[in-house]
Design a protein that fits this description.
By secondary structure, this protein is an alpha+beta fold. The protein contains 25 helices and 40 strands. Strands 28, 29, 30, 31, 33, 34, 36, 37, 38, 39 and 40 form an 11-stranded mixed sheet that branches. Strands 1-2-4-3-5-10-6-8 form an 8-stranded mixed sheet. A 6-stranded mixed sheet has the order 20-26-21-25-22-27. Strand 28, helix 19 and strand 29 form a beta-alpha-beta unit. Helix 5 runs antiparallel to helix 13 and helix 7 crosses helix 12. It is globular. The N and C termini lie far apart (64 Å).
Length: 853
């Protein structure tokens, strides 16, 4: 780009006092916010909006960069874009008129992962050069493109990382990673929140991408390991997730090729395209967008030591993903290898800025083609939904947890998916469906994302996914089937549906009410996750709550709305005496009703209490599973404290009755005591200050003392190994040590049979789908006192897999997925699957909650 500067606009170097990406310098988010506000005052080509606050109360900015004329007409161009993106009822002549009038819309976000700092450091410089450079290329971008920049996806983490870096500057720990998560709850998992949108930051970005702007292209700027290529850009490699429109993958090639061309012209070495990141990844923001007919891409820059330079010996450079770049040498999509040497944050800033600018330049030069492709993609997806199978998905309100079905519908709305609700009963074939049933037609532009969220999904086992050593290249989860995660039954319909339906604009949430009179108490349905909110509200006010151990027959009462339970509640119903009516009415939450009940003497009831709950947290970068556990407990009103190594050593019984070990590798909890910390493949070695070292070592035996003295230890996933070894439990993990050819399970949904008469499984269906990821599978080996060991859930003898990829089903058939052990005066609960996985698995939340009361 020719540097013809416009006067009166402050440069980043003038404002911050250093060049963006300079060695040992990181601009802090509060100052970056001030800089964008200053640009907003100085230029008519930028509009800065604070759309809300982050999780911890920092400003979340969305920046619009375009011509002055375009910015005045943003709403008009938004409406044009929305119409092009959803062409139902739009003929070709009208579409061509809108394409001729519209502007290409491009969204780029920066530093979703806060320790990948280059994107947010690059953002001020990119914005400045776009609005303060007067040349033909820039004028074309401003005239033809509406660029929506998210200068920082995770403001809280940016502040944490900056402050941490500055704290250790000019010490032996300069450039080391933070010991804890760089988001209060999610850490690195914030990218995995695109389809559920638990986090407020996810909702801000989801609003722009999926409901408000429908951009043609989205690019997210990341970092990767330090000892391979310098930069990855589009396109993705094989395999591709099915049901995206083919034009999306062609756009990746075209735009990625244009970016690669620009980078080579600027002399940037070590750029790889089409390798390392497959077209079937987790359903994060830059992957899910492809099924929204948005060309969703990412850049991945080699990391320095945050803002400190890193020296890379040529001998350290290595191949990059076995199937894409087995050796570090020139190949067709990597023609100019970087030779090694010093690597700086400034290198990251420059290559990401060139990539970001080239994307904008491509869309400006090919505006009409880009917009016409948006129309074509929408049209293609609608036609496939009309002629293919299934034709629709039906969500019947008569669910095990009807509120989870409502929540699913709400999450689909957050994706911009069209739902219709039945105003009266209707039939499909011989089956009748009640009023309130949701119908999701596939005859809409988002056909692809609908099929992936609601339809059964199988990850491929082929030459693209099998690595030379026999393992699998599965990028995160093997399935992201939202309905299965949530325990909601969705029916596939292959025929046309007729009835009285209306489009759902928002989900109606009715207040919980007390139903029936003339009783001595109230019962609450144990099948509803939200019932635990009511129970926690009551317990916090000192109200006595009981659980009934037998199925409960309710007196006949007029059904209240579509989500009312049947008249028979399963074991585990909550019971509250009628003299607490006032407290009950204050404690109720939307959708949870209380039902009049006359308690008979023969019905066994057990008083419940709030336990003193602790959640174990280690250092070494933090554990996202721990963060999501905290998120879930807070959301449902459970009190807890954080427990670290020193708390275990000081005596757990003084602080808690129950300790949760979120899913984690044994070595992170027990074995790591070195100053360097765990090896992170492809990243620079990590040194950590002494006070932030983790590892219980021999003190893991204190967990045994805690349980023997009456404590309850609850372990999720891989952390079960800690409990088994620390307490010497007579339990074998039957999949331990098996090769990928013998057993493989990474992010599957799988069937488990539950003993719903056991309090730990109260409220669950007798057969349910659970999330399994390298999950231990148990075989009880205790012969002397077998009565102390109980199987709460076990895999069936066949047909275990629901979605994903499972190798070696016979290894786990009939084996235990969840076990409880009475130990001394206490209890150990081993949950091999991930019951609270990313706070997305509503179908198994009750497993967690039952452990806590």
């Amino acid at each position: 780009m020719t540097k013809d500067r416009i006067s009166g606009v402050t440069s980043p170097e003038e404002f911050f006092g250093f060049k963006m990406g300079a060695d040992k310098k990181i601009a802090r988010w509060d100052r970056i916010v001030q800089y964008f506000q200053q640009l907003n005052r100085e230029s008519e080509n930028i509009e800065v909006e604070e759309v809300g606050k982050s999780t911890e109360g920092n400003p979340f900015l969305v920046v619009y960069i375009s011509s002055k004329a375009n910015l005045r007409e943003l709403e008009r161009y938004r409406e044009i874009n929305a119409r092009i993106s959803d062409p139902r009822g739009l003929n070709q002549d009208e579409a061509r008129r809108l394409v001729s009038e519209g502007k290409a819309v491009v969204v780029q976000s920066m530093s979703l992962h806060a320790n990948e700092i280059g994107g947010t450091q690059m953002a001020p410089e990119l914005a400045y050069e776009l609005i303060a450079t007067d040349n033909e290329d820039n004028r074309r971008i401003l005239e033809q493109v509406i660029f929506i920049m998210i200068p920082c996806f995770n403001p809280d983490g940016e502040i944490m990382v900056t402050d941490w870096y500055n704290k250790w500057l000019d010490t032996e720990f300069e450039g080391c990673n933070m010991p804890w998560l760089f988001h209060k709850y999610a850490g690195h998992d914030n990218n995995r929140d695109a389809f559920y949108q638990n986090l407020v930051e996810s909702r801000y970005v989801g609003e722009i991408l999926f409901r408000k702007w429908h951009p043609q292209v989205y690019q997210d700027h990341h970092h990767m390991g330090s000892y391979g290529p310098r930069l990855y850009i589009a396109p993705y490699s094989n395999p591709i997730r099915p049901n995206a429109d083919p034009l999306v993958w062609r756009e990746h090639e075209a735009i990625g090729g244009y970016m690669a061309y620009a980078l080579e012209q600027e002399g940037k070495q070590g750029v790889i395209s089409g390798g390392g990141f497959s077209g079937w990844g987790h359903y994060g923001f830059h992957w899910i967008t492809n099924h929204h007919n948005i060309a969703g891409m990412l850049t991945e820059s080699a990391s320095a030591k945050l803002a400190s330079p890193l020296y890379v010996n040529p001998e350290q450079l290595q191949g990059y993903h076995a199937n894409d770049m087995p050796e570090y040498e020139a190949q067709v999509n990597f023609p100019s290898p970087w030779p090694g040497g010093w690597w700086h944050l400034r290198d990251v800033v420059e290559q990401q800025k060139i990539s970001a600018w080239a994307l904008l330049d491509f869309c400006a030069k090919h505006r009409q083609q880009v917009l016409w492709n948006a129309y074509q993609k929408g049209r293609n997806q609608i036609d496939k939904g009309l002629t293919g199978e299934p034709r629709a998905y039906v969500i019947n309100p008569d669910q095990h947890d009807p509120l989870a079905a409502q929540k699913l519908a709400e999450l689909l709305l957050l994706q911009g998916i069209e739902l219709k609700e039945a105003n009266s009963e209707f039939s499909i074939g011989r089956k009748a469906y009640p009023m309130g049933t949701y119908v999701v037609s596939l005859r809409q532009p988002k056909m692809g994302v609908i099929k992936n969220l609601l339809g059964r999904t199988f990850f491929p086992d082929n030459k693209w996914t099998r690595l030379p050593d026999g393992s699998f290249a599965v990028f995160d989860t093997a399935t992201d089937t939202l309905a299965e995660f949530m325990g909601v039954d969705v029916e596939q319909i292959d025929s046309h549906i007729e009835g009285d339906f209306e489009i759902v604009r928002e989900i109606k949430h009715y207040p919980g009410v007390l139903i029936g009179g003339g009783r001595d108490g109230i019962v609450i349905d144990p099948r509803l996750n939200d019932s635990f909110k009511v129970v926690n509200n009551l317990l916090s006010k000192g109200v006595e709550v009981y659980r009934l151990s037998q199925p409960t027959l309710l007196p006949s009462c007029e059904p209240k709305r579509a989500y009312s339970p049947s008249n028979i509640l399963p074991p585990g119903a909550f019971y509250v005496r009628s003299d607490n009516d006032d407290a009950l009415e204050r404690a109720m939450v939307p959708g949870v009703n209380g039902y009049a009940f006359a308690l008979k003497p023969e019905i066994e009831k057990t008083k419940i209490r709030q336990r003193r709950v602790g959640v174990f947290q280690r250092y070494w970068g933090g554990n996202a599973d721990e963060g999501w556990t905290r998120f879930l407990l807070e959301k449902y009103g459970f009190d807890f404290v954080t427990i670290r190594d020193r708390d275990v050593r000081d005596g757990l019984g003084e602080r808690v009755d129950l300790l949760i070990l979120p899913c984690d590798n044994y070595k992170y909890i027990v074995d790591l005591e070195s100053k360097e910390g765990p090896p992170l493949k492809m990243y620079w070695p990590m040194k950590v200050p002494d006070e932030y070292r983790s590892g219980l070592g021999e003190d893991v035996s204190l967990l045994k003392d805690f349980v023997q003295e009456g404590g309850r230890l609850v372990a999720f996933g891989e952390s079960c190994e800690v409990a088994i070894k620390a307490l010497g439990l007579k339990i074998e993990n039957v999949v331990s040590g098996l090769s990928p050819e013998e057993y493989f399970c990474q992010g599957n949904t799988m069937w488990v049979d539950f003993d719903i008469s056991n309090p730990l499984a109260y409220g669950m269906p007798s057969k349910a789908v659970v999330m399994c990821w390298d999950s231990p599978v148990f075989k009880i080996k205790e012969d002397f006192n077998p009565e102390n060991y109980r199987t709460i859930g076990k895999f069936p003898n066949g047909n275990i897999l629901q979605s994903g990829l499972l190798v070696g089903e016979g290894k786990i058939a009939g084996q235990s997925a969840m076990v409880s052990v009475d130990y001394g005066c206490g209890q150990v609960i081993l949950i091999g699957f991930r019951p609270q996985f990313r706070a997305q698995t509503d179908g198994t939340f009750k497993i967690v909650f039952n452990c806590l009361v």
